[in-house]
Structures are given as structure tokens and as C-alpha cells.
Write a structure and sequence with these properties.
The structure is a single chain. The protein has 360 residues and is an all-alpha fold. The protein has one domain (2-7, 21-355). It contains 13 helices and 2 strands; from the N terminus they run ααααββααααααααα. It has helices at residues 21-51, 76-90, 96-122, 130-151, 176-194, 202-219, 222-228, 239-257, 266-284, 287-293, 295-314, 324-330, 335-355, and strands at residues 159-161, 169-171. A hairpin with a 7-residue loop joins strand 1 and strand 2. Helix 2 runs antiparallel to helix 3 (96-122), helix 5 (176-194) crosses helix 11 and helix 6 runs parallel beside helix 13. The longest helix is centred in the N-terminal third of the chain and has 31 residues, at 21-51.
């Protein structure tokens, strides 16, 4: 919205700063961070009053989790509100990719909100039917995938790009949309599964968002794409505004989610943030890189899949409990120890993902 101020610029004044994506990204970050600090405590107070007993705690979960009974959920509203307001304020609103990613984020937040509301109202860990959630999630992702394909330049429409291998493209045609659906839905549910300990999910999400933001900025500039030998996707540079808002809002949320958490993000936040990461990867043609950058989320999801399939076949468990962060809890690791080590792993994976930009 503030980009319109550039129309008042003669090229050598303060208004000219709004032409620069990096300047507006800084503004988006600060706006979202302030949003989190200003509205965080009032939102938590409202959620606590309205939810009463807070988020239900699984009866078969680690014993330490029963101490968290009464903690309100739906804290993802704070993150979504922060990144939405900062993006609308600082991004160029004539950029299709920005609206596509916002569409996915808000829609998935709505699904998560309905699920959280059902859990709190019924005081059970079972909210909205999993089939309904998946059906809605795939429908939203299908629209986003088709939207992205329409926005991509003709030479990239329907193609899957590979990292490391220079100019390697695989033509998927119409199958690109189903592929994009799997990426977005998979990312959303993987982040959702990771959100099980105080502060565990939000920091890896911010790390992944920061990495994808850098990639989006790079692939949206011809000079960078020529130097790095990556595919140019016009318009993706503005995604950096969104990711900066996500990081600012995430930090504001983490202030209240740090152990012991005063609020949980709930499915409202985890589905929205995971869906956003998937949508960014689809927009920038870096779906495979997302699997590297978000490797922690992949491992969390795989641990659940492996546990379920192995148990159905043998009646035995591979892990003491899935997702895998609960396995380490059962082994006696302290919660902060698990969280910080998983943060470190996320940072290492992000650096590997960034390295694929230059490794050609």
C-alpha cells in the first residue's frame, strides 16, 4: 500500500526509498514485530477468557504435557494478523504472487481456526474431521497451484525445476497443479505435526521463511538469476515482504510462546504457516529446495507415516511415540534441549538450501 508513495518521488527524496524491496521488507518486519508486541497480551487474555480450560491435552502424550493444561490455543491469529497487516501495508498489491500466498495463508488459517474451535468447544483432541480438512486443503491448494501456473512465465509454466543441475526442467504439464497441491498440503500438515513443544515449530518456520524469502528475492531479479544461473520468475521479489512480515510476527509470537508457553499457535497458525511455505516454494519454482530447507518438517511427518504403517503391519512401534520430538521426550530429553537442537538442525538445513542457489 505504501508503495504508491513512490509516485510522489522525484528520484532523490525520502519517498524514493519505497521503491526498494529491501527497505519495505525492513518496514514489514518492524510492523509485524510491533503488532505482535502490542496485540499479543490482549489477544492471550481474550483467548484465556473465552476458552476456559484451553487446549485439550492428549491423554496418551508425555506426562510433562499435563502441566500445560489450561494454556489457550489459536495464538496463530497473532502471527497471521501481523503478517497480513504488514504485507498489505508494505508490499506492492499489484503482484499476483503476493495475493496467491495470502489466499493460501488466510484459507488455511480458517481451516485451522475451525479445528481449534471444535477442539476447545468439545474439550477433545479430535477437532474437524481429518478427511474434511484434507479435502478443503487440497481444494485451496488446487486453486493456488493453477494460480501460480498462470502467473509463471510461459517458458516455466508446467515445469518442475531442479536445484544444482543447471537448466534442468521436467515438464509436468497439467500434472503441475496436482504436484503443487501435494507440496502445499504436505508442507501445511508437516508443520502442523511439528508443532508439539513450546517454541518448536515457530523458529524453524521463520528460518525456512527467511531462506525462501532470499530465494524469492533472487529469482525475481534478472541480474541475480543471470549470475546464479537460476530461473527468472518475475514478481517473486515482493514475496520477501511477506516473509519479512512472517518473521516479525513469528518473533512477536515467540515472545509469548517461549517456555513455559502462555499461548499455543494451534492449527490456526501451523496450517497457515506451513501452507504459506508451500505456496512460496511453488511460486518460486523451488519445491524441491523446500524439502531441504524444511527437512525438519519432512522428518517429523515421515516419523508419523513410518510409525503408523509399521504398527499396522506388525503391531509394534518404531518410535516410542510419534512425531519424533515426542520420541526424544520419552527417552528423557528435556523439552528445551529438544527444541534448541531442532532449531540448530533447521538452521543447518537452511544453509544447505541456500547453497543450492550457487551450486550449479
Amino acid at each position: 500500500m505504501l508503495y504508491w508513495l513512490t509516485s510522489l518521488s522525484d528520484g532523490g527524496d525520502l519517498f524514493n526509498l519505497f521503491r526498494y524491496i529491501t527497505f519495505r521488507a525492513g518496514g514489514a518486519f518492524l510492523t509485524a514485530l510491533l503488532f505482535g508486541f502490542i496485540f499479543g497480551r490482549p489477544l492471550i487474555d481474550v483467548l484465556r477468557r473465552r476458552q476456559g480450560k484451553g487446549q485439550p491435552i492428549r491423554s496418551d502424550g508425555p506426562e510433562g504435557h499435563f502441566l500445560k493444561a489450561g494454556t489457550p490455543t489459536m495464538g496463530g491469529l497473532l502471527i497471521v494478523g501481523a503478517l497480513l497487516s504488514s504485507t498489505l501495508l508494505w508490499a506492492r498489491l499489484d503482484t499476483g504472487f503476493v495475493w496467491m500466498i495470502l489466499f493460501v495463508t488466510i484459507s488455511y488459517a480458517a481451516i485451522g481456526f475451525a479445528d481449534d474451535y471444535a477442539k476447545v468447544k468439545k474439550q477433545t483432541s479430535a477437532g474437524v474431521s481429518g478427511k474434511v480438512r484434507l479435502l478443503l486443503g487440497f481444494a485451496i491448494a488446487g486453486i493456488a497451484g493453477a494460480w501460480a501456473a498462470w502467473l509463471h512465465p510461459d517458458e516455466l509454466t508446467g515445469y518442475l525445476a531442479f536445484p544444482v543441475f543447471k537448466n534442468a526442467l521436467l515438464y509436468l504439464g497439467w500434472f503441475f497443479v496436482p504436484f503443487a497441491m501435494i507440496v502445499i498440503v504436505g508442507a501445511a500438515n508437516a508443520v502442523n505435526l511439528t508443532d508439539g513443544l513450546d517454541g518448536l515449530a515457530i523458529m524453524p518456520v521463520m528460518i525456512a521463511a527467511g531462506t525462501l524469502g532470499i530465494i524469492a528475492y533472487a529469482v525475481g531479479r534478472t541480474d541475480f538469476t543471470e549470475y546464479l544461473d537460476v530461473h527468472y520468475v518475475p514478481g517473486t521479489g515482493e514475496i520477501l515482504i511477506f516473509t519479512a512480515g512472517l518473521i516479525g510476527g513469528g518473533l512477536g509470537f515467540l515472545w509469548y510462546n517461549a517456555p513455559p508457553a502462555a499461548v499455543f499457535m494451534g492449527d490456526t497458525g501451523s496450517l497457515a504457516l506451513g501452507g504459506a511455505l508451500g505456496a512460496i516454494a511453488v511460486a518460486t519454482k523451488h519445491e524441491i529446495v523446500l524439502a531441504i530447507v524444511g527437512g525438519l518438517f519432512v522428518v517429523e511427518a515421515l516419523s508419523v507415516i513410518i510409525q503408523v504403517l509399521y504398527f499396522k503391519r506388525t503391531g509394534k512401534r518404531v518410535f516410542l511415540m510419534a512425531p519424533i520430538h515426542h520420541h526424544y521426550e520419552k527417552k528423557g530429553w528435556a523439552e528445551p534441549q529438544i527444541v534448541i537442537r531442532f532449531w540448530i538442525i533447521s538452521l543447518i538445513l537452511a544453509l544447505i538450501g541456500l547453497a543450492t542457489l550457487k551450486l550449479r
